[in-house]
Amino acid sequence: MAGPEEGAQAARARALAVLRIRGAALAVALLPAAAAVVLLVGGATGRIGGSHDEGWTAVRWAVVAGAVVVLLLAAAVAAVVVRARPALSPTVPIAEETAPDLYRLVRDLAERLEVPAPSAVALTPDCDSWLEDRTHRAHGGRRRTAGAGGGRAPVAPVLVIGSPFLWWMRVGELRALLAPVVAGTGPSVHPDIAAARRFVRGLDAAVAVAARGGHERPAPRRGAPVAAVAALGRAVRRPALAFLGWIARLLLRGCRDHAAEMERAVAAAASERAQAVDYGLRIVAQEQVGLAYAGWDRLLTRVALPAWRMGRWPSRLDAGVVSALTELSRRDRLAEGFTSRLSERPACDLLEEPGLIDEATSLLAARLFHGGPSEPGPDWSPVDWGAYPEEVVDRKWRLEAARLHRVLDEQPHPGADPAPARPEPAEPGPAEPGPVASGPAEPGPEGSGLAGNGEGPGLARVGDAPGPAAPEPAAPTLARVMDRLTAAPDRAPTGELGEEVAARLSVELAREEALHRAEARARGRAGGGAGEGPGSGGGDLWIDGCAPLFPPQPPRTGRELLADHVTAMVCCAAIDTAGAAPGLDWLDGPALLVGGRRRADLAYPVLSLVEDGDAEPLRAWLGEVGVRAEKPVRLV
Length: 636
Fold this sequence. Notes:
- The chain has helices spanning about 5-45, 55-85, 100-115, 165-170, 170-185, 185-190, 190-215, 225-275, 280-310, 315-330, 355-370, 390-410, 480-485, 495-525, 540-545, 560-580, 605-610, 615-625, and strands at about 90-95, 120-125, 130, 145, 150-155, 160, 310-315, 380-385, 580-585, 590-595, 595-600.
- By secondary structure, the chain is α+β, with helices and mostly antiparallel strands.
């Protein structure tokens, strides 16, 4: 395209195509009514049958009845499309009094681009920026506001900025990065484009309403008449919602291509308009976007995720991005020169209280990526980076070490005699528990998700026939773990015993994850009716009903879980017997510090033990560090 005007014209042409589809749908809905009017007028004037012609009279009233039904259906569909709440991105709103410099930067940028300034600014815990229309009445917005000359001008969209950008980028880089985004407010306030976008968002929201209505939760039990009325309402609602969903999907398919081309034209026009603003800095800013995304991803998956799984959420994730990217620039020669940028003014200085904003976005990130509660509590408390090694890393290792030893307690030793068979009960009783218990178990230690008091799924339960007393659990030592995972003398060291332990660990971790998901769904149902208004922090079904929206890590295999647990046991032994300390690596997460320096050479010895049943490399590593494997370790 030659310039922004051509792009804006193309966008308006596509918007008119979307509006023509809307007009065609309206015409189809009004066509039976028009036919009824023609027949009624023709009958009254005697031009189409007579007023006493029974045949034409029946046709007229049949068409009138059909027209009324079609109008009622069309009115119902239109009401749902207009009133349905469009999807709203979860963000942290930034009031102008909390960031006057940021608002001033955005307004100066809009003035240079000769476009309307965004109506507000919000932050999202992601490496992206966009404009979002929040003028729907369900969001508490207004479609028009007072303009110049006493007229009414459309409300500009909200500017959503990725919070990692504010902490990593410099002020000039942020201005260059936001230039093409802010330039999009020009086409966004055009009446035709705004109307086309509202129509498409309304159809999308109507499809979501139809989908949710078909999977409603059953109402609590009440009296028989109330239950009968509720059942009748569901029987009528389901076909109505199915019809609504069919109509909305049909219209969406019709305008999908035009809407996509309209958005491309809007983006092209905004990019062309922003070419003259800080072009050189835009190239540098785009490089920083890729770097920030890499650091943010590593920070979430390696550092934040272990804390989230333990009921803690790091309260300074955005500040952690700076530390992670600084560490990356130190390690990677391709990133040399990026640390020199740190002497320039960071964009987070545009905020009056960057610490409070960082805490709010960190809590939102935990909700989005892990499904945590919307508010802090006794089981969901923040953790500072300074306390992270002791409160997260050390506790994580000891929880995993305790889980590993409980699983080993449940597994019979390969050299031990088989346990005596239990006597059959005199009367039919509950089925004998297998290797994996499917029934409820007593709650275990915090965060373990296992049965407490040293009992595993394979031990006797109340009501079983009396048998020999269970042996006392062995001392939690690293030597015991290596002995159990090392292949028996009469077998090749293939790690077959490790496969059994890994399978048990996978079952226990899956049980804990299922419990966490159930708790997240319960929180979503409990808060679904409250706080659905604009700016509400909790009870948003778009978040809590589907959380986590973006799981930050794929499922791990049994071997990987076993390797993690053995590593945790080694680290606990090193801390308790060799004077090591838990640490934090900004790119790799939990780290073991020996003599104040990180030991990153533990992976090969552990994998040799887990995969091959060979403990010699690990024994050599322990001897080098000074770890005493026969000493018991402290568990949680």
